[in-house]
Structures are given as structure tokens and as C-alpha cells.
Design a protein that fits this description.
5 domains; Archaeosine Trna-guanine Transglycosylase, Chain: A, domain 4; seven-stranded mixed beta sheet; 26 helices; alpha/beta; 44% helix; 18% strand; flat; five-stranded mixed barrel; binds adenosine-5'-diphosphate; 24 strands; Rossmann fold
Amino acid sequence: MKMPAVALRGMVILPGMIAHFDVSREKSIKAVEACMMEEQKIFLVTQRDVEQEEPALEDLYKIGIIAEVKQVIKLQNHIVRILVEGKERAEINTFLDHPEYLLAEIVRFDETVDDGLTEEVKTAMLRGVQETFERYGAVNPRMGKEMLRQVKETADLEKLMDMLANNLPFRYEEKQKMLEAVSLTERYEVLMALLLKEIEITAIKNEFQVKVKQRVDKNQKEYLLREQMKVIREELGEDNTESDADSYLEDLKKLEADKEIKEKIKKEISRFKNISASSSESAVSRGYIETLLELPWDKASRDNRDIKNAEKILNEDHYGLEKVKERMLEFLAVRNLTKKGQSPIICLVGPPGTGKTSIARSVARALDKKYVRISLGGVRDEAEIRGHRKTYVGAMPGRIVNGLRSAGVKNPLMLLDEIDKMSSDYRGDTASALLEVLDSEQNSKFRDHYVEVPVDLSEVFFIATANSLQDIPRPLLDRMEVIEVTSYTENEKAHIAKEHLLAKQMEKNGLKSGQLSVSDKALAKIIRGYTREAGVRNLERKLGEIARKAARDIYENDKKKVKVTEQNVEKYLGKEKYSFDLKNDTDEIGIVRGLAWTSVGGDTLEIEVNIMPGKGEIQLTGQLGDVMKESAQAGLSYIRSVSNEYQISKKFFQENDIHIHIPEGAVPKDGPSAGITMATAMLSAITGTPVRADVAMTGEITLRGRVLPIGGLKEKTLAAKNAGIKTVCVPKKNEKDIDEISEEIKKGLEIVFVENLSQVLEVAFAK
Ligand code: ADP
């Protein structure tokens, strides 16, 4: 069809949008006049370049809009203001020859192509848009309540998208994209991308605003203080710059460092001399010089190479932890033999409180190395590792260089704590910065943005700690040697408490040896009843509590000695907090004990299943996550597929509901490892076979009833043992982990390796 056309500059009209604009080009005014003679329809298309006066076909976007002209007002100076309403999308084919105005040959799009989307998909898309807009509104307080309400109430996807495109402050190029998106799906994608981008930008903008404000406040304060200082200095008639510069030069002479570095510092000192003492630049320069002078360029401490001594110290400080100790002694031996040798980068991985940090400190003591700890938990900004450029207000070196500075030598032991709790955002990739620190190829020339000259990290002995391997970025993990530290058994905890923690806490609280004793039974009660953890941190805290109270007792009541026994523990620590779930006394139908692995170690969990008349539905209650729900479904599917073998009638699943419940939800549990437990409980309930009360199990189940391996075998078997279980079923594939389990756990506990569910039932069903 043919229609008079107007080229728009810097704006796009979308369907449903009512807008007015001024027309001044002669051709355009003529086009408006022509359209008013006919149907009042006009084709509006945007030009790519706002500046173009006489746009040709290729200067315009292909897709424009057919609009209805609602009102025309003649203003002065040959300007016409028109009010239009956008109606439908159309594509321009060509311009026909017309002497007075642009006459376009256009093709309408029949209707919106809806891609054959089902109602569900459309509803999902609708909600997607609504939710994203809500987030947008949340970061954009200027977005009115009315708009939010309207968006929530609009139930038509297309209308909603048009409305948002019309009302949000998108640029005209972006609106053009919306116009060009002919199908619903395309339009959805464009709109969502725009919204998400806006959300991101606004969030970043808000964050910057806060930062800038803080910085300005700080600058102003500094400025005032400096001005005051200047006045004071003038009054007193002193100016430190000269004398400071001299003392820096003095320090520089004593500094052990490369020529290149000394040159750099020297240059900076002479620059410093020439800046006015009251300028802020002087403070920056001063900070820089001092930092560089304090860095241990070529200064190193002598390591103790006596292996026997190292072994003695390591054993003195820690009970167990054999693998870590062994690895350290090996390292020493190798280094003594080769006279050099790169320091290994060791990563200790294990639950909290298992002595990772403290063994690192002890290694430093054994090797006579300086020790610095750098906490990486929550570090998100690359600059925290690599430093800020010194032109930046308040710039500082990164944590690594700071650590080196506080160590004072170039070969300290540097503990990178909680390497798995580091994350990255738009402020840069923390992991890759750390990668440079740890890479032995690159770290002899580590570049800190603040320091500017390369710093040698190749002699630093790095030890990293982490709670879980999964959260460490892969490339980082490849650079490190992982040593796993597992949780402690009760017996080990008792040893640690007796040999280390108690003495430590007594000393801390001013008690002399002999003034406080804790009996073995009392200790066992504290471990069981007052703590539940993989490590010994809470245990140490509890012993500290006892030591404090004992100290008070001795001081106030003039006692010679305090004895803590099983009977009087409660006097010191109050009522017991935890109780272990013990095994049931009798075999029951539909009740099976599973084994779980949580952040505080292992635990047993009892799974109950009831069958009742119904429609074949499965219901799950208790504190359980999605993975667990899915694994219950998988178990049920398997049971249904083999119902013949267990003489379950065909109709059973149509006439009954199955309810699975996991009581004791204090710790939320998730993961697939309760699969065989739930399947066994279901089969027991369906077939009415009792399950042995002294059996516990763990393993993921597949649709075909195979049993897949699980993690945390040591912790789980330990929990089973504590609960008084006699037999545990464990996936066959976990057989290789059996070495982790100490004899103490294995004694009196039968471990059966299983490959499929029928083997589990063989063990679990009471005969
Ligand atoms: P992590 O770094 O693994 O979270 P910590 O090193 O902070 O744990 O250890 C917590 C406390 O427990 C420290 O006081 C530590 O000395 C003590 N500790 C842990 N394991 C042992 C052990 N095997 N022998 C002696 N003390 C230990």
C-alpha cells in the first residue's frame, strides 16, 4: 500500500503510544497535509542519523509504524505540531516518485506473529516481564507506584510489553529494536535484555554514587585538617619536608634492594622534596615512599633446616593431621637435599575448626619463618589483591604486598585463608589476580598497581585453606596441592582436648597446671552433649567457659583445685544441648535410618513412610531440598517398574497415596544420598515388611535401581556408630574411600558394599 511518510529524528513511535512532535521540514509538512486529505494515516519511520536533512531510503530504518494523526496545530514560523497514535508495524519497500512529499510503498505485518506459543509459555513470559520490572522498580525509586500497579495488573503479554517499551526511558535506538522485533518471542527477548541491562546499570550507578559521596566527604575533611595544619606549622615556623626527605634518603642507603628499585625510590624522594608540604600530593608521595622503603626487597630470614626439630614442633602443637605434617617434612627434606627448591603451594581443605589455620602457624614456627595471614573471605574486588593505582584517592597496596610488608621479609609463610569464599564481580576477576600470585612462572615479578615496580613473591611459602573444593575456581585449584583435612572422631577430639585445648585455655584464663582437671567421662559428655561440629572450635570454647568459671571459683572461694566430672558438668555448662538420635529398639515397617552429611559433620536421619488410600500421589514433608524430592521420585519410579517382583498389585499405585516424612528438621538436609533410604522405606511400607532397626544406609539411587557413590563416608559412618547402628549399607563405588575410616569407627560396625537396591533390601529387610 501507499502512504505519505515522515522521517522522524531521534524518536521512535511504538504501537499504542500517543505522542506529539513538531514538523518543520517542508516535505514533511506536505506529507501531513496530504494524509489529512485522506484517511489521516501516516507512515512514520526513524532516520538512522539525526543530522541528515534529506534522508534517502538507505538512511532510514526498514521498519516503521503506521500512525493515526489525531490533531494538527499550526504554529508560527512554518512549524506544525501533530498528535499521533501508533497503530501497527509496517516495512518500507521503496519510495514512489512524488514531487511534494515522501510517498512510501509499505507492507503491513498481518498481525503479531505469536510463534505458536502456548498459554503456559505466554503466562511464564508475562510473569518474567512483571518480575523483572519489579526488580527494575526496586532500584529505580522514581518509578511511580501507579506504573508498578498497572504492570502487575496487565494480563496481556503483548500489551504489557508495548506499555513498558513506551513508558520506560529507553533510547530511540533501543525502541527501534523493539519495533523491529516482530514476533512475541523476539520482542520478549529484546525487552528483557533492556530491562536487565537497565537494572545492572542502575545498581552500578547507585554503588558509585555512594562511593563518590564517601570520598568527597573524606576529601573535604582532609582538606580542612590540612589547612589547619598549615597554619599551625607556619605559626611554629617549621616545615618537615626537608628533614623527612633526608631521613628517607638515609633509610634508602640501608635498604637491601635492586638498583632499579633504589633508583625509583630516589626519584620519588627528590620529587617529594619539591612538592609543597601542604598539598595532598605530598601525602600521597610520602605514603608511597614509606611503603616502598618498608617492603622487604632482598631481605630474607634464615629458615631452620633441622627436620627432627620441625617434626618435634609439629607434633607438639597438633594431634593427628598426619598427612599435613608428613608433607611438610618431605618438603623440608627435599629442600635440604637440593639446596633450593620452589616452595609448594598447599591447600588445606576441610570443615571449620579442624586446625587448618593453626597447623599453618605451627609450620611457620617449625621452619622459623615469619607468618602472615591474609583473609580472602568476602574479597570481591580485584584491587584488594592487586592494589589501587596511586593516583586514586586513598590508594593502598593490595593485600599480598601489605602482607609482605608486615612480614618484613621476602620469604614468609603466607596463609591465604578461606580461598573458596572469594568472589568476583564487575570490579574485576579476583581469581585471576590470585592466579598470578600463585603461578611460579609469573610470581617472581608480581605487579601491584600501587607499588608499580615488580615484587618478587617466588620465595613466599603459600598455604591456602578452604572449606570445600567445589567453590575454588578450577585454574586456581590446578596450581595447588590439595591436602584434605577430615573431621575428627570423638576419640580424636578427646585426645585433642586433653593434650592441647585444655592446657591452652587454662593458660589463657590464668590457671596453673593442676588447678583444673576434667575427667575423661566429663570430656566425653561435653563432646557429645554440648558440641556438634566437625572440628573442635566449639569444644575449645566450652573448655574456655569451664576454665573461666573455675578461675572465678578459685579466686572467690579460695579453692585449691576444681575437678570437673560427669556429674557436675551441668553446673558449668548448663543443660546438655544435643542428643544423638539413637537407633530404634524394634524393627518397624516403613521406618528406615539414613545417613546425612552436613556442615557440622555426619548425622543420622530417620525416614518414615505411610501408605493410605488415595489416588497414587506422592507427598513429601519435613525439611528437605529439591534434590531430595527428585530422588524420592526416582526411587518410586524404580519400585513401580519392578512391582511384579515384589508382588505389588497393578492397582496399588492408583488406589493409594504415599507420604514420606523426614522428622528432626533442625538441620536442612539436601542431596541425593538419601535415595536408597527413601526407596527402602517405601518398599517396606508398600509390602509390609519390617526393616531392621540396627541398619543404616546411604547412597544415591538411579531409575534402574543402581546405587551411586556418595561423599563424606567418614562422617557418615561415624554418625552411624554413635547412633548404635550395627550394619551400614554403602555404595560399592565408595569402597576406595574405606581407608579414610579409622579402625576406631570400623570396630563393631559392619560395612556392606552394595551395587543395587535388591542387595540393600537383602540386608535391611528383617527376616
Ligand atoms: P580452621 O582453620 O580449620 O577453621 P583452626 O585452625 O582455627 O581451624 O582451629 C580451631 C582451634 O582448634 C584452634 O585453636 C586449634 O589450635 C585447635 N585444633 C584444631 N585441630 C587440632 C589438633 N589436631 N590438635 C590440636 N589443636 C587443634
